[in-house]
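Changelog note: in this version the structure field was regenerated for every chain. One regenerated record is shown below for reference.
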Amino acid sequence: MVKVSVIVPVYNVYPYLERCLDSLVNQTLKEIEIIVVNDGSPDQSQEIIDRYAKRDERIIPLKKKNGGLSDARNYGLKYAKGEYISFIDSDDYVDVTILKKMYAKAKSEKCDLVECDCYWEYPDRKVLDKSHIVDSYFVDIRVMAWNKLYRHSLLKKTGVLFPLGLQYEDISFCYQLLPYVKKIGYVDEALYYYIQRDTSIANTSNTRVREVYDNIKLVLDYYKKQGFYEKYEKELEYVTTKLILGRNFYRICALKDRKIRKAYLNEGYQLLESNFPNWKKNKYLQSRNDLHHRYYKHLNPFMYKLSSIVFHHMGDKILKKVRG
């Protein structure tokens, strides 16, 4: 029996792919399959995939026309036979015990979803990203698909997939799945290494940052259509506030084009205000008093605009000081 199907999308990751595959073929959990999806990569990645597939019969090499990360993950999911599913990005790598520990947690506690901690690996250091559940997993989830294990039957039953053609696709996938998850497990170890190629927000920002808004709209529409909206309205309000005023705000502030930057900032604020006009009174927002939440609670249109100017010119310095 295949206990875990690992889906690895590949596109232009030639320098990183061997390390990723090494960390998977050497897993201490042996009853796995490694579905490697070449998403039309133009580099030499396929040579590495073929070499590893000859060595290890658990590797299932797939090729497809380039369609993006979401399309590659969805494509690999069609071939998966495992009891649980894991998504590993091909420029990252994992501890060799990750699947054994997460699968053991899933089985022992009958979990639909299990997550572990991770390291954000920069060229000169590793930063621990540890789970901090304050109120509920729904509002405190780390919105990333790759540090988790998912019950395969749940994905089949719900039909939840990654949205095609959008970046920041983990937002839509995670939040559409959460209402169906009955039991969540947590492995208190950093077992995933998330590679950061550049620490500058200016170099990680592009005009596709507004696609966060498209993902938010997909989630809100999904909850309304599925009849979940009323039950989770306050959670969705808080999540939308964090997504728009948090990390994505920094990404937009880093854009060089002033007109685009202004348009995206206005769009985000209007999206928040139009869907949740009383967002400042949100119970989760009001119950927290760290630096970020104090900033959110005192924000108004003028402060929002002023903050965007400050972060455009000093964003990297401010974030480094806060993180330090």
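Spot check on this record: Confidence is low (pLDDT under 50) at residues 199-203. Residues 301-323 form the longest helix (23 residues).
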